[in-house]
Structures are given as C-alpha cells and as structure tokens.
Amino acid sequence: MTPPDTSGLEAALSAEVDGEVRFDAGSRGAYSTDGSNYRQVPLGLVVPRTVEAGARALSVCARFDAPVLSRGGGTSLAGQSTNTAVVIDWSKYCTRLVSVDPGRRTCVVEPGIVLDELNRQLGPHQLQFGPKPATHSHCALGGMIGNNSCGASAQAYGKTVDNVRGLEILTYDGQRTWTGPTPPDERARIVAAGGRLAELYGGLDRIATEYLADIRRGYPKIPRRVSGYNLDSLLPENGFDVAKALVGSESTLVTVLRAELDLVPVPPYQSLLVLGYDDVCAAADDVPRLLEHSTPSQLEALDDRMAQLMREEGAYLDSLAMLPEGDSWLMVQYSGDSQEDVDEQAHALLRAVGRDEKASSVAFSDDPEREQKMLRAREAGLGVTARPPDGRETWEGWEDSAVPPERLGDYLRDLRSLFDAFDYDRPTLYGHFGQGCVHTRIPFDLRTAHGVADFRRFVERAADLVASYGGSLSGEHGDGQSRGELLTRMFGERLVTAFGELKALFDPRDRMNPGKIVRPNPVDGQLRLGPGWRPATEATHFGFPEDEHNFNRAVMRCVGIGNCRSHSGGVMCPSYRATMEEEHSTRGRARLLFEMLNGHADSAIQDGWRSTAVRDALDLCLACKGCKSDCPTGVDMATLKAEFLAHHYEGRTRPAAHYSMGWLPVWARLSRIAPALVNSALHAPGLARAGKRLAGVDGARSAPVFAEESFVQWWRAQRREQPDPADPRTVVLWPDTFSTYFHPAIAKSAVRILEDAGFRVAVPTEPVCCGLTWISTGQLPMAKKVLTRTLAVLRPHLEAGTPVIGLEPSCTAVFRADAPELMPADQDVRRLAGQVRTLAEQLVHHAPDDWRPPQLARPATVQTHCHQHAVMKFDADEELMRRAHLDADVLDEGCCGLAGNFGFERGHHEVSMAVAELGVLPSVRAAAPDSLILADGFSCRTQIEGAGTGRRALHLAEALALALDGNLPSDHPERLADRPPEPSRTARWTTTATVAGLAAGGAVLGARRRV
C-alpha cells in the first residue's frame, strides 16, 4: 500500500485539528513501542484537546488514507499499542467523567480518563468501575475497552465487556453512532433507513446468522476468554449487543469516543485468607474446591519462584513476611456489607476444606492495610519478573493464557513440561487462578535467529496446548501481534474467517491499527530486538555495575509497564504529572534513549548522543531518582540523563546553568571572601536580574542567601580536638555545600544532637565535596576529580571504618549510589558507600541503648527528599520521629519540584511550580499553625519557603536541637530557626548604585583614552 503523504498530512492535521500535532523524531520515538516485544515507529502523533477534535483527526487521516491507532496508557503487552500509523493519544485532555447516574449505577466517560481517577471521582457516590487491572493507577478506560481488561477484581465483577453498557463509536469512513443492545425491531428500523449504518447492522446480522453454530460451539465457555472478537455478544441470547461486540477489538474496528459504563458499589468490608501449598500446581488443583465452597471477590496466586525473586531483589519483603508457611499461595478475598459477614465467609471456607486458621499454612486478616500489603506482592508480578536479579531478560509472548479453572493444575504441569522442553528455566507462575488465568514471563532469546525461531515454535506449541484444554490464548491482555497469528489454532478457520469479515465490514480499507488480530503481522516480526538489532556500543562514564556494565542494558530496564504515568502516590514521575506528556515520563525517555542506540535501520533518533530530541526530553527530567525506587524494574533516569549530558556536551559549550549551578560548590567557597557583598549583589535591583540572565537562572527565582559564617568556619573557631578515627564513638559529620554555606544552623544542630547521644564529632576542614552538582549537570569527568580529592581527605576515616553522617539527602545519596556507579572499581568509594549514614540511621541504630531523643510532642508535616525516598529510604527517620513523640504526617505527595538546580534553571520554573502544587505546597499550607514543617532537603526547604506558603521548613536535626532548649512555641515553631537574613534594601540599592557608578566611570575613562 502506498505510504501516505506525511508532510501534507501533518499540515492538514495542524490546520484542522484542535490539538497538538507532532511528527518530530522525539514524539515518534517515544511512541515506538508499548509494553510488548514489538516496535513500530509511528507516522506521527495527535493529542486532541476534545473528543470532537479526536474525531476530526480521524477524518483528516482518512482523507490521506493514513492508518490510525487510538492509544490510552500504552501499557499493552501484545503489541496492539504500537503501529506505523498516526497515533491518537487520548490520555492528556480527553479525560472527563461526563456524567454519573447514581440511581442507575452508570456513568459516561471520555476515553482518556484513568481508572483510579475515575474511581476517585465516583467515590462520593460510593460507586466504582468493577474491573481493576494491575495498571489501575495509569491505564485509561479507552485502553481497557480496547483490550477487554480484567484484573483481580474480575472474579467478582467480570471483564470490561461485562461492565460496558454503550459505546459512542466512529468508523474510519466517518459513521458515528452510539451502540449497545439492539433488539430485532430496532435493527430492522436501522436497516430500513439505509446508508452506512444500515450496512453495518445488516452485515453484523448476516455474520451472526451465518456463523451462529460456529460461535456457539467454538467459543470456550470459560471466565477469561479474551482472545478474538466478541462475536458471541451478537448471539440472540446475548441481546445482539454491538457495544460488547466491539469491546476488545483493539482499535482495529472503530474509534471509541465515549463510553457508558455500569458501576458497582464500593464494598464497605473485606477480609483476606491466604493459604499455603507445597507448589503452585497443588494450589491450582485446590481452586475448584475453594470455589465450590465460597464466592470470593478475588482468588489470586503466586508461586515460590516469584517470592524468591522478591527476596533477591529486596522488594515487597514486608508483604512476604505476612504470608503463611508454604512454597506457593492462594489469596482469597471476600467482600460484604459487614465485618462479621466477610469474616464468616473466610471461616466457613476453612471449615469446609478442613483447614484451621491457626495452622502455619494459613493467614487471615480483616485489617485493610494488612490486606493491601499482602495483595501488593501479587500485584507486583510483572515488575518483579521483568528484570530478575540473575540478569536474564524475560519477555511476554505467553504471559496471559487461560483455561477452565477445574483443569488449571494439569495445564500448569503441561506448561512446565513445555518450558523444560525449550530449556526455559523456571519462569514464575502466578495470576488470577480463580478464573484460570496464568501470568508468566519467559526468558526467550529474542536477539538471535535461533532464539527467535525457538520463540515462534514455543508459542505455537503453547497455543495448541491451551486449545487442547478448551482455553484461551489470552485471558486479559488481548491478541495484538503476540497472538493474532495463533487465533486459528484456538478458533479454527471458519471463525477466523468471520473475524476477517467483521474487520472488512467496519474497516474495509484496513486502516484501523492494521496488522493486529486480522491479517496479523507475524508473531516474530517487528520485534523490539530481533536478530537484526545492532545497537551502538560506546564507552561510558558510569560503570552501570547492575547492568553488566552496559548502558544499553540500563536503558532496556524499561519494559513499558508505565507506572511512571501514575497520577498520585510515590515520587515517579513528577514531570509527567505536571505535563501529562509521554515524552516527559520515565518510559518515554527510555524509549527515546533506546531509539538513540540506533539498533534498527528505521530508528527515530539518528544523531546519537548529539540528539536534540533526546536532550529536550531529558531537559524536564528533574533527576529526582524517583524512578530508581518506584519503577518496578528500577530504571534510574537521573543516571541515564547525566550520562547523556556528558556525551552530548563533550567538547562543546554548555548551557550557562551548568557553569553557574554545576560549579556551585566552587562559587560557595569563593563567597567567603565577602559574603555580605555577594548577597547584596545577588539581590540588588537590576544587577540580580542581569546576573540571573547570564547564569541561566529563571527570573522568577530568588538566589538563596549565603551565611555570613559558614559551618566549617564556625567549626574551626571552636578549636575542638579532632577525635581519633578509630574511636568507636567517632563520627564524621559531612560538611555538604548546602548545610555549610547556606543553612549552617542545621550542621550545628547535628553536632549538638550527635554529642548529646554520646558521639565524638569530626569535621573535615579541607575543601571537600560529593560532586553532586557536577553529576546532575553531566560534568562527570570533573565529578570524578572532585570525588577523588574527597576520598583522599577522608582516607584515615575510611580506613578506620568511621561512620560518615550525611545531612543533605542528595549528597548522602551520591555516596550511597552515584559514586559507586561512577567509580565502581575504587575501593575507597565502596568503603564510603558502606560507611555513610543518615543522621536518623546513626541515632536509631547506633546510639547507646539508654539515649533518648529530646521530646517534641507535637504534629509535624514531613516532606521526604526524593533521593532519600529512592536510595536511603525513610524508615529510620520515621522511627526517630516516633521516639521524639512527633506525630508525623509523612507526605506521599511526590517531589517538591525544585530538585536541586532543576527549578532554578531558565525555562523550568513553570513545571517546577506545577509539580509542587500537585501536593506538597497544598499540604504545607493546610498544616496547623502549631505543626512543625520538616524537610531535610535544601531544595524542599527552599521551595516551601519561596512559594508563599507562609511557612518555613526545618531539618529534623534543627527540630531536635531546638527541643534540647525546651518547649517550642505553640504557633509557627519554625520562627526559632536560624537562617541568614536577606540583605537590607539599603545594601541592595547601594550595591546597584556602586556598580552603576563604576560602570559609568569606566565608560568615561574609556572615552578620554580614545580622545
């Protein structure tokens, strides 16, 4: 087929569509794949601002005969969300809950609304949409409809198809209509009216009639049949429901503009029963018996291999600790109208199957928080199995099969035998066992011709196996490209012919997501890798020790799960939450870096490290490291960004901010010459504005104030005797740039608290630095030099094993994580990584047993620094605050938005403040006047104070030190904090006048010399 005129298409879309039209390399690269094994670079991207604009985009594409793909969260695991087409992304603007009818328990939504956001808005009505996939925090309803999504709650509520009442659809050739159940008299009326709609309904009637016996006989009677088109919804006994017939069609038939959904009440009470078994097959064998004696709302499973992976990765250990004895587990959840009801359902099952609640292989809970912790281990399956600690690459491809629940145990045994036949060692098995649906990820070799051939042979044999059990190729993820070619093995030729006729009826030109389900691309075609993938391999500055010392493998940690597109909770990904742009999510950036590797002839990014498209996508990365902990596969975009910037600017002039803020530790030391004058200059009218312009600092930001006396100057003046590094009471207090030159009261407070706890404090008085600002701006050779000098200064303490106490979380995180990756072979770096501790870690785990922190006895609103969240964690801080009798509200509102130099850089202020307003700043404003506002990060404190909240944040060390002096004020206790004052108005204007006078005098002298 002749490719469309993309330049004309782009121009027409830009002129006629109310939306963002992008055919640039960056946008195309960011949408080149989904969560699957497949990759197809799109023609371009349209982000419509309204549903009507989306419909108009489809019309323009039809005029140019351009293929179209509708996309929601882009998490599809079968390749249905990637295509060489115009991608219409509904998820940024078309996100409205249009209406709710609580009486009928229905609502109407636009296709881009995220499931969790929909349920949040339905909360006041005590209603929810029933199906809940593991991607509920970021999957869009349009995508759920396209995929026929399910999730664990489908045990109670069914698949998406069972909860759709009507769809407003648009065909490629422009027919727009609402669809739903259509009785014979209505169909007759539609057909009699003539036109395209009559053609559609007449064709549907013909297909349903001609293939009636085949549909009744050929569709598996199981809870989780998702493969194929829903022709069974057109059967007379199913009400000839056209909307349901279109659910699960994966954008291959129509575009969904709006949907009317059935809703269910939010269950007020739940309980959870977890049963342990010797192995996963024995657990599967017991499923029919459990279903015979109870009606659970969820019946989930995980096996010993998945638990082993979690332990090796150090993930979800609190969830695993709650599981009963066993090597595999079934999680049986009950819902009801009272606690007594749900508890009795669980106990009745135990009595029926002869098990005792007190047995070591049984765990029961009716505590919602504890239940969620236990279920979290199961929900984390994809992320845990995608990148196992042994370094194997695991892939989808047979991750979603389903069989009758009563035959599940035998199917798993046969599936394991098939794994063994191909030497696919021990893939984990888990999933929705109550409905016979099995999830796994398999270590296919998708890089070599032999490995790809084995992949094809495996899925063909697996398809035959599941068909022999009367099962479905897909139990919830859909067919796409992974299973489209295999449908004949499940349904037979006649039904697959019927699928083709349905496709031809709605999309005769094959322009809607072509190559998926009908006339599918080969299962081993368009692979993300494949035997022809030849990525560039170049030397890097970071060692990437956890990725086989390979930048490419670090990039490939992203498998497309999409948690970085969540709207709340955790830290990842602040720039996505502020912009709602795929390109500014962790996943989008990883996609661009993958394309930059130039492994394919059609790679969207052809200019490697010099790519402006990659640079622009990384520009709004806050380097918060939230993805390092929140991404299920541990993508560390901050490190990848630093590596990219190092290569991108190698041998070239850098942005001004890299010199001003990247070299901040140097400028801070130089400020000691005349700190008052420096402060006056940085805040002087006119002069400050010019300085910010030259330094690449955003004009909306005020420069932080340097302290008149730095912490190290204060320490030297104390003339304290340096303690012996070998003394077990000795600790090194790290004099980071921020606590030393801007907020020295924090470091002084830390000295008081450490000495109160019985430690002897040492402070390096020679210039030292962790190199943070050079790392974050990608000046990695300089960062190594700085670190090398620092290690030399610290060497006596490193050799003695002296603890190094960090106060600024970002600097502590450098020693714990960045430095070992930057200098992995350096033994002193390894020693330092093992010896560095946060203040709370030292006081909680290493203070004398009889020491008690000073008592604060008040509420506190606490903002955790992103790097601490990602690297050191916050458990010790929470324990220290508990011991200090602080009623701490530790915010789960994400990043503060300043993120070191990010929020200061020109062009970042708007995004920085948008991130802050997502949760942190509103929470601070809402804090009670007597509450402490705690934030250990300099960035967090600066953002809170500079955003007009009327509050000032303290470091935990300051709060504890203030408590040593007695009770804090009941109102705004932070007013006791010692902070450098801004220069007076007189000083600022005097500086401006002096500089102006000097400039004028210089001009006069110059003029005289010329005369």
Account of the 3D structure:
With 1011 residues, this protein is α/β, with parallel strands linked by helices. The radius of gyration is 31 Å and the shape is globular. The model has no long low-confidence stretch (mean pLDDT 95).
Strand order of the largest sheet: 5-6-10-8-9
Helical residue percent? Answer: 40-55%
Describe the largest sheet: 5 strands, antiparallel
Shape: globular
Write the layout of secondary structure elements.
Blueprint: H1 6-16, E1 19-22, H2 25-30, E2 44-48, H3 51-63, E3 68-71, E4 86-89, E5 97-101, E6 106-109, H4 115-122, E7 127-128, H5 141-147, H6 154-157, E8 164-170, E9 176-179, H7 184-193, H8 195-210, H9 212-218, H10 242-246, E10 255-262, E11 264-265, E12 269-277, H11 280-293, E13 298-302, H12 304-313, H13 317-321, E14 328-336, H14 339-353, E15 362-365, H15 368-379, H16 381-386, H17 408-421, E16 430-432, E17 437-439, H18 449-468, H19 487-491, H20 493-506, H21 551-555, H22 574-579, H23 586-596, H24 612-619, H25 626-630, H26 637-648, H27 656-660, H28 664-670, H29 675-683, H30 687-695, H31 711-718, E18 730-733, H32 737-741, H33 744-756, E19 760-762, H34 772-776, H35 780-800, E20 804-806, H36 809-822, H37 827-835, E21 836-838, H38 839-846, E22 858-863, H39 866-872, H40 875-883, E23 886-890, H41 909-917, H42 920-926, E24 932-935, H43 938-946, H44 956-964, H45 985-1010
